[in-house]
Specification:
This protein has about 800 residues and is mainly α. The protein has 21 helices and 8 strands. A hairpin with a 2-residue loop joins strand 4 and strand 5. Helix 4 runs parallel beside helix 6, helix 7 packs parallel to helix 13 and helix 15 crosses helix 16.
Amino acid sequence: MKFLPVFGILGLLYVFIKNVWISKQEVGDAKMARIAKNIADGAMSFLKAEYKILSIFVIAVAVLLFFKGSNETGSNGMVAVSFIVGAICSALAGFIGMKVATKANVRTTNAARTSLGKALEVAFAGGAVMGLGVVGLGVLGLSGLFMIYSGQGWEIGEVLNVLSGFSLGASSIALFARVGGGIYTKAADVGADLVGKVEAGIPEDHPLNPATIADNVGDNVGDVAGMGADLFESYVGSIIGTMVLGAVFAGIPEFQNAFDGLGAVYLPLALAAVGIIMSIIGTFFVRVKDGGNPQTALNVGEFGSAGLMLIASYFIINAMLPESWVEGGKEYSAMGVFWATIAGLVAGLLVGKVTEYYTGTGTKPVNSIVRQSDTGSATNIIAGLGVGMMSTAIPIILIAAAILVSHYFAGLYGIAIAAVGMLANTGIQLAVDAYGPISDNAGGIAEMAELPSEVRERTDKLDAVGNTTAAIGKGFAIASAALTALALFAAFMKTAGVESIDVSQPDIMAGLLIGGMLPFVFSALSMNAVGRAAMSMIEEVRRQFKDIPELKAALEIMRKHDADLSKASKEDMEIFEAADGKAEYEKCVAISTQASIKEMVFPGLLAIAVPVAIGFIGGAEMLGGLLAGVTTAGVLMAIFQSNAGGAWDNAKKTIESEGRKGSDAHKAAVVGDTVGDPFKDTSGPSLNILLKLMSVVALVIAPSLVSLAPADEVSMLKEDGTTITITEEGMKETKEVEKQIRIEVSNTEDGTFKAVVTSTSSVNGEESVETKEFMAETKEELEKKIQAYKSAEAKD
């Protein structure tokens, strides 16, 4: 266990090696290099502006956490340090992924000039840096802090309360990155689509389109940095939630034989650490030849890694947990925990495949949207909404099944370990996901640099697979968010001492309704923000097309020849080429940056302020109701929005692949895709983080809620040992119970084992004797029955 941080360092070492390899690949010609520099500069300017605002937020919250932790029992001021480290790790994961993605995009384009296989290798290497960066920082940060805090002589409960600040820091940065990145990318995308495609009749990635650089920057800030921060948060949240629930087992005798009774606490860290190795191994399986299918190559790497992780999990779980134990009167086993892990992993993969069905090109749901595009925008939008709503059914059933199966085999700890099992392969899962926006950027650069058609065909092939992997990644993120939120919810209940959530109580029902309302308000805020930012972008693109003479003249040439410049005369080409570099890309980049930074603040603060307010005003039970409501409504809204947006996007791409660009059906599909863009890339993915952030906030403030809870009774101890207790029912005197248990074990004539247990109790001077008999086929079975009886008696 002392070497856990080494696994994190190993992941970061792999990141460094891949980064060096990508940097050595050729960039291409001067025009490609210039376009790539514009994208990289735009991405970095956004990150600098975002992190400048977030640094103020992090310092302010850290100060509040320090005073909160210093003034409550069961925690201390070091929770502020955990918060800062978690925020830095989350921001650093986004920065590393963004930096390498903006290097890999142009190098993927250049590699596509020679072969599809080489292009896939470069794009996937860029994604692998993001994936392994996230898991490396997560394991290094968590295990490093855990070892430092454990060495301070604190109780395990205090160690985990302080460590939960790490998850709060990661969640806070993730929410702002997801919302800010989503607003940025969709404002640019809507401007590029509506003015470029629909009004001007040019491709969204055409160099004449002023919003095209901002659009390509958006792919990075939304789908690379945003998704990285999202899964980083799920990753560390699931681990911390499981550690908190695992601490409950520390006092059980069977756990005392190894790891100082903390085997269940260490287990999620160990699984995550080994997951890094399995993800690295999986990256070596991703290979494709020209004419091959990139999707097959990615599936081999992803499923191969998952298979190896399953085998490793079996041995790790059986080595770290006792063969069986009794908790809460129910018997659990190491194999039960293993089955719970499998339930989580299988549910994650299946939710991804269902998402692929509802959003993939050529599937029945997407084809239904294509057909209804023929009759206009209204029917296209109705069809997309229907597909999105219907797509919630199977994923919710799968998530519910995973919850029931994992709870049956291992209780609340099983649900938490199912989330860890689902996220153990985050390294390669995120690598496959981040490959998508890199390929998308590569296609955009090929279009802007006007490279030969076969280059664009190769990048389009990679991009088409990237759309599917992105949709699967979003489904995977939603499923993991649901289980992680539930694990954190259970951890909050344990820490706050909440036994159950009774929805018949008016305060809890009020909390439930407020929680159910929040995903709708949160989605409205983020979608309205996209609408306002997109309006500014549309106005700017229209202004440039109108006011810049060279752009205006070049657009006339494009319209004259119906975008087919092979028919253009020499004079026409001279006019067209004179417009090269005249579009003012930086103004569109500035609009997206300013809008996203301004608009991300309120939704982010809402997610943090509401659970704090409800917790301190209504108490822990009402806060539990709030979490139940936001988790239920949030998961459904996230699946609906992500899948509807993905289906609209691929319906548009299907019409384009049929050669119907510019047709009425295509224009209707573009409108549907534009509506779906903020669904799938802003509000939908942001809801994942809303669920987890609110649960983490509740977990962090739980010790404060316990200390503020009103006492149900007042007690006073007399000199003779009698306790006088005053409750709402009146006054009563009690004396400490003395209990002795005597066990006699014998063999019966038929070869079975018999135990006679005599329990003698003394309560307030009155003695009572109870005798029980237990029968069993084997001595081990008899011992388990006796142990269960003793545990139940101890609780009484």
